[in-house]
Amino acid sequence: MIRKLCAEDINEVVSIWYSASVKAHDFIAEEFWHSQKEPMRDVYIPNSETWVYYLEDRISGFISYYQGFIPALFVSPSDQSNGIGTELLTTLKQHYNQLSLTVYAENTQAHSFYIRQGFIELERKLCEHTGHEEILMSWAL
Question: Are 37 and 22 in contact (CB under 8 A)?
């Protein structure tokens, strides 16, 4: 089931974000992700429109939307490759006609996922926070 984020979901969502980020971005020091936990919990997630994928008795993934941009789409590492990311993205596509996001170039699995979902590459640049190349991608109905 996909539903809107509730206040009591925030710690579980941040935990998913952290574990999935560390797994997907092994080219970035884990300390960086650890330093971002508090801003995710207190700033980024609360200021975004977020949906969660609820599986049995727990949240297994989430997607956030902010002013035309997808700042977060993360699935718990134990639940990846089961279509949850696709379902979350489909939910967002049903609400908005145009979406943008960035993905690290070294995260080839996520880059390929977004291409399969109809996103196109617009530009490549270095991330100001990590120094790694990121790809700006866009999707439109």
Answer: no
pTM comes to: 0.94
Q: What secondary structure letter does DSSP report for 41?
A: I
Residue 132, φ and ψ in degrees, nearest 5 = -95, 150
CA–CA separation, 110 and 49 (whole Å): 21
Tens-digit pLDDT profile for residues 22-58: 999 999 999 999 999 999 999 999 999 999 999 888 9
Residues 6+ apart with CB under 8 A from 50: 4, 5, 13, 62, 63, 64, 65, 72
The rounded distance, in Å, linking the Cα atoms of 5 and 89 is 15
Are 62 and 16 contacting, i.e. CB atoms less than 8 angstroms apart? yes
